[in-house]
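Anyone up for a design puzzle?
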């Protein structure tokens, strides 16, 4: 029987919660303040802690911090009577599993407790089994190429993240490998048949989000339902409108623990949150485990290994592409280049050279002009603008020139396509 420690300074609350929680299959224990609650938890280590935020001498937030220091896996649900969400957001910031705003409904309370138990069990199973087969070190390192200190640190982070189900926020420039990391974490579920639902927030219109992500009554749309048991992958989270951000919070409160949530951003969401440009509760729900992916220019020592890896993946009509070699001079030029498009740009350059070369050895003179001459280096803005045009052109080709259909896919007004 799962155990719940209820920490509240009102005995009447103890009695009320005991009356509604016990019949649903939970064993309840009580403490009248944070200090006593901490002592009881250390003595017995409960499955869940349900704590009021407004207590003396130790309040709920302080108790939460102390519990997390003692047991990082502690599942803590905060109760707050405040009308605003400020205190609840603060609790999420410090690692609360969720919060309940008084007065809360009994069904809401029980549903939150059950989600908490499910999460606790998930953590215990992962901790007992270690890395599941889909997340073996060899599998991770075969997809993340390099030996730099930055990449080594990233690989170690991923190995740890493979054992938990907490939402992950991948931060980095376009082309730094965020999609690959998300796929690795999804594979860590150990259930390859589960869905990997990938949504690009920069391409879907608000109407599409309301239908596919938000659904009716905050219960989640088709995308959320399809991701159940698997992974919901939201790219470019910073592109969501303010109204969608607010509604997404409600969806995540009801559904987030039914799937693995992985989000990406190319911007500093914490800064945007501090500036009031991003929903604070949404930020703390998705950013409990932030992972920074370095741009390629900051791990240039990995470039020779990446070049060899990408060359082996290409095809050439004249000879085995695996036999193609880049001279030291060519590799020096490629290492010095700043790669505004990161891994994506490097892959495109290597693949094109290997596919079209008539010689097995590639010299620096066979590299694109922009790599060889500094005056031709594009700015990041120029490079991304070119990438955007390539993507739009690809969508138009896919839609056989039908601009109306392409505009619908891209989630933009028809007039923007000319």
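Challenge accepted. My sequence:
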């Amino acid at each position: 029987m799962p155990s719940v420690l209820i920490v509240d300074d009102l005995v009447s609350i103890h009695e009320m919660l005991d009356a509604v929680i016990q019949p649903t299959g939970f064993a309840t224990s009580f403490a009248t303040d944070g200090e006593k609650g901490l002592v009881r938890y250390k003595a017995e280590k409960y499955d869940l802690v349900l704590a009021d935020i407004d207590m003396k001498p130790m309040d709920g937030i302080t108790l939460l911090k102390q519990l997390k220091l003692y047991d990082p896996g502690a599942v803590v649900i905060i109760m707050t009577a405040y009308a605003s969400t400020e205190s609840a957001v603060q609790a999420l910031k410090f690692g609360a599993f969720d919060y309940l705003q008084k007065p809360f409904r009994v069904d809401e309370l029980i549903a939150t407790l059950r989600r908490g138990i499910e999460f606790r069990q998930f953590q215990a199973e992962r901790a007992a089994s270690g890395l599941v087969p889909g997340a073996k070190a060899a599998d991770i390192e075969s997809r993340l190429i390099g030996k730099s200190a930055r990449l080594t640190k990233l690989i170690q982070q991923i190995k740890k993240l493979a054992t938990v189900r907490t939402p992950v926020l991948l931060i980095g420039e376009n082309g730094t490998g965020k999609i690959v990391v998300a796929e690795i974490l999804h594979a860590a579920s150990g259930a390859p048949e589960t869905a990997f639902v990938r949504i690009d927030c920069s391409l879907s219109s608000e109407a599409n989000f309301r239908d596919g992500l938000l659904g009716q009554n905050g219960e989640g749309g088709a995308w959320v339902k399809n991701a159940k048991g698997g992974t919901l992958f939201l790219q470019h989270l910073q592109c969501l409108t303010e109204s969608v951000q607010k509604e997404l919070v409600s969806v995540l409160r009801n559904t987030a623990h039914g799937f693995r949530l992985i989000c990406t951003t190319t911007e500093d969401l914490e800064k945007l949150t501090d500036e009031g440009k991003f929903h604070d509760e949404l930020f703390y729900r998705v950013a409990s485990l932030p992972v920074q992916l370095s741009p390629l220019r900051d791990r240039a020592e990995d470039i020779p290994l990446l070049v060899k890896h990408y060359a082996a993946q290409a095809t050439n009509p004249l000879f085995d592409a695996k036999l193609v070699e880049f001279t030291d001079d060519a590799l020096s030029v490629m290492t010095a280049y700043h790669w505004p498009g990161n891994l994506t740009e490097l892959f495109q350059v290597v693949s094109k050279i290997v596919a079209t070369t008539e010689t097995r050895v590639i010299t620096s003179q066979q590299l694109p002009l922009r790599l060889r001459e500094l005056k031709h280096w594009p700015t990041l803005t120029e490079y991304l603008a070119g990438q955007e045009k390539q993507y739009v052109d690809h969508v138009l080709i896919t839609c056989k020139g039908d601009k109306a259909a392409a505009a619908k896919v891209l989630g933009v007004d028809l007039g923007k396509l000319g």
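A detail worth pointing out: Residues 201 and 236 are 5 Å apart (CA to CA).
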